[in-house]
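notes to self, project folder thing:

trying the whole complex as one job this time. last attempt i did each chain seperately and stitching them together was a nightmare. two parts in total, labels are on each line so i dont mix them up again. if this works i'll redo the older ones the same way
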Amino acid sequence: MNTAISAGDTAWVLISAALVMLMVPGLALFYGGLVRQKNALNTFMMSLSALGIVSVQWVLGGYSIAFGPGSSWLGNLAWWGLGGVGAAPNAAYASTIPHLAFAAFQAMFAAITVALISGAVVERLRFSAYLLFVLAWTTLVYDPLAHWVWGANGWLHALGALDFAGGTVVHVSAGTAALVAAIMLGQRRAIARGALVPHNVPFTLLGAGLLWFGWFGFNAGSALGASAVAVNAFVTTHTAAAAALSAWLLLDLWRNGRTTAVGAATGAVVGLVAITPAAGFVTPRAALAIGALAAGCSYAAMQLRSRTRIDDALDVFACHGVAGIVGAMLTGVFATTSVNAAGANGLLAGNAAQLGVQAIAVLATMLLSGGLTAAIIVALRAIMAIRATLQDELAGLDASDHGEEAYHAGDLGALAGGAPLSGVILIQDEEELAATAA
Amino acid sequence: MKLITALIRPDRLREVKEALFRVGVTGMTLSRVSGHGGEREIIEHYRGSALVVEFREKIKIEAAVSEPFVDPTIRAIISAARTGEVGDGKIFVQELDRVIRIRTGECDVAALTPVTAEIVQARARQVQLEEAS
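result (full assembly):
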């Protein structure tokens, strides 16, 4: 295999890594707009803090566990601190870019995946518990799963499971973890009193736009080169998002007589999720079908979820879990080697067996993620209180966990100059009062 | 002297303001308020959940006026704020004990008469004349 470094490929992968990084603040906006005002900062911080913690973990050992040499189940720590990961390409992953560029690109995936889960537990999970969860989940669930599916000797990789850019590793795993975490954490206390309404829908729309933009790096970047496969992934990504958004508008119109903005943003993200495993293996025509079908399934899942007592607050399972599963299975239907010779044929190209392989990958992902997420939460509960107290939940986690507020505009206290931190307020004695009155 | 408090639809504020200026009432305080009247419910949808909007947005106008201005003020507000549909709002009229202008210490009617009263009323008369002709 040719292992000469390509400037074009390297440039595209670096830009793609930066695009995926932008999805983190995009997700923060998407989620942050959907919560109530008093939890806005807390929700933003759940996404941004994951970028910090996971990136440190990735350098220290995460990358090595996920992509390092080892067994078919787990990488070893040979590449801890990114030692031995340098300018020379690693032909098993990408033969035309420095190995370090691949590691940087993959770091962003690890960071956003755990952040996706936060949408299920917002407005009630204590932030300190969340930070520990981020570290534990990335190490115990994401890294091994990435090794299974993408590692040079991973067992799902060897089985022939198709996952172009992380349908199972990122979305099915995060969606399943979100469902388990939401059930174990219980409902927000205020939910009994009525619907909890988004505080800033334009944030959510802007966030969806940034996610869509970043997703070009996520999917087309996963070709790991400026190639025809990257172009195909770019087009299928855009097409599926557009199809899902359009389908969602129609579903809203049919069910409620109106198209909603939150629905349009949700639809776009659902389409992007569903095309993720398929982007480099299917045609644009298939992308239309994948986007539209995923929109229908996620829409139905959301309607059903809201009738249960499961408080997956921002519908992470309906978005990422359901659309991830639909996308992974439809990859087994629509994949064709005419798009990508390194891929495989699916059902429509005469290879029904691929559907079985895809189902195994989905089930293995759900078992690993669901089981270990539950174990992590049980362990966290044993060492600390993971739920906010009733008072903190009612006042909002911005104040209780961060000592900040998202919005001070319109606060008369600011006009009044604020109270002195020392708490000392000068009170006029009777003599002074009398002098003022006279 | 009376304190006139009017609750009106936000989309009628412009018309009400112009009507008040025409009768020479320029002193007013506005606030955004929410309230419950007898209107039809509004239902909003966010993904799987529906929400009944319980309180409607209204604008509250407060104007303190001297006796000769009380009835013209009320007529002006009604003529500009009325659509005939449920939800047009209310006007409350209350007695005022004292009024003090902070800048000068003037009291009662003197404090209520705008500094620019003559200009405002001349302009309002002219508008009325133009409309009549």
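what i see at first glance: Residues 290 and 423 of chain A are 61 Å apart (CA to CA).
need to look closer tmrw
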